[in-house]
Amino acid sequence: MKIKELEYMGDAYLEIRGKDLNECFQGAAIGLLNLIYNVKKVELKEEFEVTIEGYDLKNLLYKWLEFLLIKLTAERFAPGKIETNLDETKLSLRSKVMGETYSPKKHGFKREVKAITYHLMEINKDKGNCLIRYLVDL
What we know:
Elements: E1 2-6, E2 12-18, H1 21-36, E3 46-53, H2 57-75, E4 77-87, E5 92-101, H3 104-107, E6 115-116, E7 122-126, E8 129-137
Antiparallel strand pairs: 1-2, 2-8, 3-5, 4-5, 6-8, 7-8
């Protein structure tokens, strides 16, 4: 999986490349969190499972990223490792999320993410290749 921040005025525009949608959704989550704090500094002390459902792939991606942003900002939970299992036919994503309570002192703070957006969101896939791009409002 490859996560890259593309140039975009005033906001963060991320590109994730992977071997399949599952890997790309996992990378999209890590890319978002790395905008906010250093994911590598998170200890895997707690874990939970979550299922997200959408009405199409873009909606599923939006809801997934929004869930993680809310989990961090409202509940102060910092994911450090994420395992995903995407069911494309049911448009659902089951995920195991591992991490700990967020601490700016321990994990750092890079920048504030206000919201996930649909603007410029792309999900492209073909056999053995996946590309996701999405814009984050800073």
